[in-house]
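Renewal narrative, Specific Aim 1. Our central claim is that a sequence can be written position by position from structural information alone. The example that follows is taken directly from our test logs and has not been curated for this report. It begins with the structure tokens describing the chain, in the order in which they were read.
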């Protein structure tokens, strides 16, 4: 039905297509960056984007569900992070064999899923009430919010500011609640320690810009979704904004991030580093 209805709607199918594209791509990019940090770059945004695209195309064609969102979620990141930490502690695995071991975990998982599908184990869902589904949905929502805020230990922040302001650091501090954009990146992510972007004021500006862009994108995207009920503007324009407002706001706020004054260093705000799949840096660990 999705295929037939999509062909009959003409250009109107572009609105849900773009919406689902961004709804799939943005979390994948965000979780890919988190996965890269947790696995020391062995798995990154390149792998999450490629796997999401391949699985989405296969499921759309073979599963007959072209409008279904297929992507990475926080439980997936937790699993791969646990596998990586476990592999690092094993002398016969280590970082070198992490991908091979994770691959075999996925193979055995697929075999078990095939067996569950063959014996129609999905019927067990009738034993659960809707509360279980809503609780799982709430879990995913909370994990998304956690990743969006992404707190970090204050001990790292205090150590940085103490060194910059020449004040004693009396840590450790276990309080959490500072967004990671206000902190220094990892040592292996710093190419030039003498760069001005790692100075106190520019780290603060970087975090402030991250908060402004995040809140601005969220607020304007939610507002444009209700454009049809606006009291101003002609009908077709309000419909266009309501249909394409979310991707337009992503483009607009991304453009805003490039319109900063010339006095701001080029590394502020920080941007996601995602090389092309065929570049050497993407293939080094394969």
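The sequence written for that structure reads:
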């Amino acid at each position: 039905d999705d295929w037939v209805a999509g062909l009959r709607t003409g250009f109107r199918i572009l609105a849900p297509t773009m919406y689902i594209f961004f709804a799939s791509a943005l979390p994948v990019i965000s979780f890919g960056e988190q996965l890269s940090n947790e696995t020391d770059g062995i798995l990154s945004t390149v792998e999450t984007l490629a796997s999401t695209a391949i699985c989405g195309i296969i499921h759309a064609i073979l599963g007959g569900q072209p409008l279904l969102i297929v992507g990475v979620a926080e439980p997936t990141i937790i699993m791969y992070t646990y596998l990586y930490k476990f592999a690092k502690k094993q002398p016969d695995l280590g970082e070198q064999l992490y991908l091979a071991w994770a691959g075999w975990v996925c193979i055995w998982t697929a075999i078990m899923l095939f067996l569950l599908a063959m014996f129609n184990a999905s019927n067990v869902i009738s034993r659960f009430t809707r509360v279980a589904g809503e609780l799982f949905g709430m879990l995913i929502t909370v994990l998304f919010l956690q990743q969006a805020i992404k707190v970090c230990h204050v001990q790292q922040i205090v150590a940085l500011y103490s060194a910059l302001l020449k004040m004693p650091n009396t840590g450790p501090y276990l309080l959490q609640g500072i967004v990671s954009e206000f902190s220094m990146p990892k040592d292996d992510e710093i190419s030039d320690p003498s760069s001005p972007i790692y100075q106190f004021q520019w780290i603060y500006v970087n975090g402030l810009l991250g908060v402004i862009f995040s809140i601005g994108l969220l607020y304007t995207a939610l507002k444009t979704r209700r454009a049809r009920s606006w009291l101003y503007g002609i009908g077709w324009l309000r419909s266009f904004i309501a249909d394409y407002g979310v991707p337009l706001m992503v483009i607009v706020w991304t453009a805003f991030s490039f319109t900063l004054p010339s006095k701001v260093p080029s590394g502020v705000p920080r941007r996601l580093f995602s090389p092309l799949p065929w570049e050497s840096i993407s293939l080094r660990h394969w």
